[in-house]
Amino acid sequence: MTRYKTLRDFPVEEYLSPGSTMCAGCGAMLVLRAFHKVLGPNVVFVNAAGCLTLLQVYPYTPNKSSWMYTAFASAPAGAQGIRDALDILMEKGRVNSFEDLKVVVVTGDGAAYDIGLQSTSGAIERGLDFYYLVYDNEAYGNTGFQKSGATPYGSATATTPPTERNPTGYTGVKKDLFEIWRSHKPPYIATVAPSHMVDMLRKIETASQFKGPKLFIAFSSCPTGWGFDPSLSVRISRLAVECGIWPLKESVYGKVRHTYIPTVLKPVEEYLRHQNRFRHLFTPRKQETAIASIQEQVNNYWLEAAKNEGFRITVAKPVTIAPP
Amino acid sequence: MREVDMLTGNVAAAWAARIADVDYIPAYPITPQTEIIETLASWISQGLMKAKLVQLESEHSMLTAAGTASLSGARVFTATSSQGLLYGFEMLYNIAGWRAPLVLVNVSRAVAAPITLEPDHNDVLAARDSGFIQLHAEKCQEVLDLILIAYRVAEDHRVMLPVIVNMDGFYLSFTREPVYIPSKTDVEEFLPPYNPPHPFRAGRPVVKGAAVLGGHIYAYFKHNIHESLLRAGDVFKEAAAGFREVTGRFHSPVEGFLLDDAEYVLVVTNSFTSIARKAVVRLREKGVPAGLVKLVMLRPFPSSDIMEKLRGRKAVAVFDQNISPGLGGVIYNEVAAALYHVKNRPETLLSAIGGVGGKYTTVEEFEHVFHMLMHPEKTQPGKPVFLFRADELAHVQTALRLAGYTGEET
């Protein structure tokens, strides 16, 4: 029973005015806008330092809802304070229930994966009744695109530049925040992508039924940091999903289900080659091994998921070449 | 009706939170503060107090939650010490900038390294530039009283700033003293309910903590905080007068002891004031015109009260239980600045540093400071005197010897 069956069900109410300071084609804005539409106006966003912080520059705001900027590391704790205050004041009869608000943490991946992971862990463990929306653009975008715990293997960033000595760019592994969160056993976790709006709207709707932590990791295509034309933002997001790079899934009390299965995976190259952050993998010479290793990770992920959930999937062939 | 009880400083603080009818207590354990949150947790779980206590996962989160709850309209109480205060330090500036009028009790403890448990004031004085009002207690009764006064000052719409109430770890936190607990009706008369200006509520959207671009807007807000903090000094005096009417006890930002004809005056803060008082009494018995000034309020810095109390004295010493390495005592420098514009200022202004890391300062040591004031020719102007006794040095040497240290590199 969902209100959202096709894109035509996208709510018409707007709570974010146009003309903000975000970059053109910002994936995070698409996600925030959709969240706001489903959750309605009675929301307080609790924000940590990141791109979206600049939505509110005194004395202007594009929001028709409330906003609290906290600090880099502690937006979930800020949400705790607001939720607890509203609860105790309602209990003491000083706030009416119709004045209550939904508390929504909104941070980038730097806050979610790195500096604020501890405060998120605490908030989930305490069973705080809140939403957490991470707009994940896989680096510290607001400070000029430095590597974060969400940066994938092979990405160039300002602090992991590809050079002759290190041709691959970032050589670490993107943290699996979904699984880190899931180990806390919250009622609801989901990944979403702006290219799959109906899937996103349904997930926010599903999450609303639960009391406790409701956590979202949103693919946030970033024209400025990733290096592509702003008009391609949604297309990049679609490629990420179709290539299997960004699985769309949810976890209800720890039980995982993929909500969209790209039955025949497109090769990851199709996703990588559209972005400047991966350009060094293709030029001046193609780094077959690095690309093959990305493909292999994606394939292994989906084969494992197919086995666990009993669906069929055709993976793309890793292009492997023997070392000289 | 009034009750009197033998309470530790920590339990006195908890009682203050209880009778102030606080709504929310974000908490995190740290010695020597922990007894405060344990006491409150026990009362709340027994239904003796209607509030919500939540233990967070760090002081940084604790202070964040404290600030946002206060902005949501809850009366908020929290407590920490030393490393905890420093761990959450970033949030002190935020809470003040948010104009969240909460009360934070700091139970002073020296800051690592080396890691230790006993008190000095480097922790709380590190927060002097954050925009918090600072009130420092000498006795357990003051802990309770100052917290109640703190809420009235903080929540006054002319102020709207947070307060740190400081007490010394161990010397106050774990020492029982007789404490009068005001009745609920007395407190209700003195402390009206918190009336938050723009809390987070459905249908009334607000933005808090928004970014500013450009130094002019930042400076505008900072100047506002400064003005409000200065006003807090007068609002404190009003509140203290109201408090006296209800409880009969009086508190002022700067308190004098045997000051009327005093020529030699010692400036002190916190629990060691009680030891210094004894030195002053002893000297008076010997006919020395000694006196004492206790600073209760450290922010706003009560410059005009200090000027008034110290003008015309022969010699003044400032006892700092802290050290700013490379400078000396923090409060000495602030007192010196306050006295600069006094025409008949004391000829001698001596800096004495003692009690660092909780090191006990004896009555004799305070007497020694007065003797230095009487013979300023034996001191070097502007150079701090470190109070460190020969028997204490001997203790260090004995410990090293027992550990096998011979004084030679091996």
Explain what you see.
The complex is a heterodimer of chains A (324) and B (410). Chain A is an alpha/beta fold. Chain A has ten helices and eight strands. Chain A has helices at 27-39, 75-91, 109-115, 117-125, 177-182, 197-207, 223-227, 233-242, 268-272, 288-309, and strands at residues 43-47, 66-69, 102-108, 130-136, 188-192, 213-219, 248-252, 255-260. In chain A, strands 2-1-3-4-6-5-7-8 form an eight-stranded mixed sheet, with helices on both faces. Chain B has two domains: 3-198 and 207-247, 3-Layer(aba) Sandwich (Rossmann fold), CATH 3.40.50.970; 255-395, Rossmann fold (3-Layer(aba) Sandwich). Chain B has a six-stranded mixed sheet, sandwiched between helices. In chain B, strands 4-5-7-6-13 form a five-stranded mixed sheet, sandwiched between helices. A two-stranded antiparallel ribbon of chain B has the order 1-8. The chains are: A alpha/beta (324), B alpha/beta (410). At the A-B interface, strand 2, helix 2 and helix 4 of A face helix 3, helix 5 and strand 9 of B.
Net shape of chain A: globular
CATH topology of chain A: Rossmann fold
Poorly predicted residue ranges of chain A:
none
Q: For the record, what is the CATH homologous superfamily label of the largest domain in chain B?
A: Thiamin diphosphate (ThDP)-binding fold, Pyr/PP domains
So how many helices of chain A?
10
Oligomeric state of the chains in view: heterodimer
Strand content of chain A: 5-15%
| Strand arrangement, major sheet of chain B | 10-12-11-14-15-16
Helical residues, percent of chain A:
25-40%
> Based on the structure given, which CATH architecture of the largest domain in chain B is correct?
3-Layer(aba) Sandwich
CATH class division of chain A: Alpha Beta
> What top-tier CATH class of the largest domain in chain B fits best?
Alpha Beta
Specify Rg of chain A, calculated over alpha carbons: 20 Å
Q: Gyration radius of chain B, to the nearest Å?
A: 22 Å
E-strand count of chain A: 8
